[in-house]
Amino acid sequence: MTALTELLHFDRQTQALGQVSGRLGWDQETMMPSGSSAQRGEEMAALEGVLHARRSDPRVGDWLAACDGQAFDRVTQAQLREIKTAYERAVKVPGDLAEAIASTTSMAQGKWAAARAEDDFAAFAPVLQEVLALKREEGQALAAGGDVYDAMLADYEPGTTASELDQMFGALRPGLVALRGEILEKPPAKSLQGFFDETVQLQIASELAQCFGYDLNCGRIDKAVHPFSSGSGQDVRITTRTDPSDPFNCFYSTIHEVGHGCYEQNVDPEYTLTAIGQGASMGVHESQSRIYENQLGRSRAFTEFLFAKMRAGFGDFGIESADEFYKAVNSVRNGFIRTEADEVQYNLHVLLRFDLERAMIAGDLQVQDLQSAWNDRFAADFGYEVPRASQGCLQDVHWSVGLFGYFPTYSLGNVYAGCLFERMTALNPDLDDQLRVGDLSKATAWLKESLQRHGALNLPRETITQACGAVPSEAPLLAYLQDKFSDLYDLSL
C-alpha cells in the first residue's frame, strides 16, 4: 500500500502541474499580449520539461511494478491503468524532444494566427514543416516499429486504429453524399437579416451556457479566434466568438464548448486531479459537445425557445416564425469552414483532414504541397473552389499545435452522439416538451449519470457501450440525419 500511496500522491501533483500548463495555453489564446509569444514558448517548454521528467520518472515504474498483481478496487485499477499508459508513453519520448515540441508548437500557434489573418500559407509552411518533423519523430518513438499514425491516434482515442475508422467512415460517406445531393437541389432556407450586437450575443450565450448546465462559479466564457475548452474539476473554461452578421456562430460555438465543459465539470469530484479525472477520450468528449449542439440545441423543439429569446434580444431579424427559424438554424448550403458546417456536411470536412494528415505523416504529402492538395480534395468533395487560405488549409489551429490524430475524433464523436441520442430519446419520450421551454435538465442529467460522472474510469468504447446499452456504430447517426433533413427539406429518401 505504501507504493500505491506514494504513486497516487506523485501523480496528483503531476496532474495539477498539467492543469497549470493548460491554463497557460488558455491564456495564450484569450488574454496574452501579442508580443509575449516568444517568452510564453520558453515558459511552456520549461513546464513541459518538468512534466515529462515526472511522467517518465523511474520511480513511477518501480511503484507500478510494486502494485502489479495486487487486488485493488475498480477505481484504483483504472487509475493505475491510466498512469501506466502515460508512463509507458513518456519513457518512449526523449525529454529534449518533448521540450522541442512544446516550444515549437507554442511559436507555431502565433505564426498560424498571423498567417491566417494574412491568407498567407507560405508564411506558415516552414514552421508547420518543423512541427510535422518533430511529431513524426515522436510518433516513430511511440510506435516502436508499428504504425506511426495509429500511435498518434492513441493519444486521443485509445483502442482505435485508422483502419477501423476507415471502415466506419467509409460506411458514413455514401449516405452523407446522397443526402447532401438531395438537399442542395431544394431551395435554400431563409437567412437572418440585420446587425446583431455582439454584447447582446454574449449575454444570450451566457444564458444558453447556464441553460445547458454550465457552472459559471467554476468556469468562465471568453473570446478566441478558434473556440475551445480548457481545464477540469473546479476550473473549466470555455471560449466562443462573435460575428455581428451571424449570431448562430456565437450561440452554437458556445453550446458546443459547454458540452465539453459540462463533461469536465460533471466528472465525479472524487476523481479530481487523478488520472481518471477527465474525459475518457477526445471522441467521447466530442460526443458531448455534438449532442449538446446538434441533437439538443438544433432540435425543432429547442429552436422554438431560442427563437423567442432572439426576438427579445434583437427584435425583427427577417424570420417570421419558429418553423422558419428552425430551417434557418439547420440550413444546408455551400461553405468552407468546418466549425460552421451543418450536420450533413460536417463529417465530409473531417474526412478530408483525416486523409490529408495521414498522408503527411506517411510522407506521401509534403507540406509545400498541402494547400494545393487541400484545394483539389475540397473541389472534388464539395464541387467548388477554395478562394483563400483562411477558408482552406489555414482555418484550423490543430496542425500548428501538433494535434495530428485529433481530427478523426470529431466524426467519431458524431457517431457516438448518434448512439447516445437514440438511447436518450427511448428513455425520455417527453424530451421535446422539455426542450420547447428551454428545460435541458433531464437530458443533461441523463448524460451526467450515464457517462460524464465516470470520467476515464472505463475505456472509450466501453464508456459509450455502457451508456447506450449497445456497441457503437454509425447507423443511429445516419438514421437521425436522414429523418431530420428529409423532414426539413421534404425529401423522398
UniProtKB/TrEMBL annotation:
Q: Where is the active site?
A: E257 (proton donor/acceptor)
User: Quick one: which residues bind Zn(2+)?
Assistant: H256, H260, E286
Reactions mediated catalytically:
Release of a C-terminal amino acid with broad specificity, except for -Pro
InterPro entries from the UniProt entry: Peptidase_M32_Taq
Q: How is the cofactor bound?
A: Binds 1 zinc ion per subunit.
Q: Which cofactor does it need?
A: Zn(2+)
Q: Name one GO molecular function term.
A: metallocarboxypeptidase activity
A single GO BP term for this record reads: proteolysis
E.C. code: 3.4.17.19
Q: Which UniProt keywords apply?
A: Carboxypeptidase, Hydrolase, Metal-binding, Metalloprotease, Protease, Zinc
Identify the domain of life: Bacteria
* Record bears the keyword Protease: yes
What role does this protein play? Broad specificity carboxypetidase that releases amino acids sequentially from the C-terminus, including neutral, aromatic, polar and basic residues.
Family listed: Belongs to the peptidase M32 family.
PANTHER family in the record? CARBOXYPEPTIDASE 1 (PTHR34217:SF1), METAL-DEPENDENT CARBOXYPEPTIDASE (PTHR34217)
From the Swiss-Prot or TrEMBL record, give the protein name. Metal-dependent carboxypeptidase
Organism (species) = Planktomarina temperata RCA23
Organism ancestry: Bacteria, Pseudomonadati, Pseudomonadota, Alphaproteobacteria, Rhodobacterales
